[in-house]
Amino acid sequence: MDLIELKNLGKTSVQWLNAVGIRNRDQLQAHGAVGAYVKVRERGFKVSKVLLYALEGALMNSHWNDLSPELKKQLLQDAGEKD
C-alpha cells in the first residue's frame, strides 16, 4: 500500500519517509512508528511529536488523536523525546 493512502500521512510526511528509504506500508511496518520517526528526525527534518503519533496511527488505521495518552507517552519515551 502506498504511504499517501494511509491515515494521517500527507505529502510532506510521505516525502520525509521516502527520503529515508521508507516507501510503502510494509517498510513502515518493518521499521515501526518509532524507528521511522527516529530515521526522519536523524535525517535532519524538523519534526514534531505529532509525526510520531501520525505514524503509529497510520499503522493502526486510526486517527493519531485517538491514540491513548498512555500509548503516546510510551511512543515518546521509546523515541527519546520529552512529553
From TrEMBL:
One Pfam family hit: TfoX_C
InterPro entries to which the protein is assigned, alphabetical: TfoX-like (IPR047525), TfoX_C (IPR007077)
Domain of life: Eukaryota
TfoX C-terminal domain span: 3-78
UniProt-recorded name of the protein: Competence protein TfoX
Organism whose genome encodes this protein: Elysia marginata
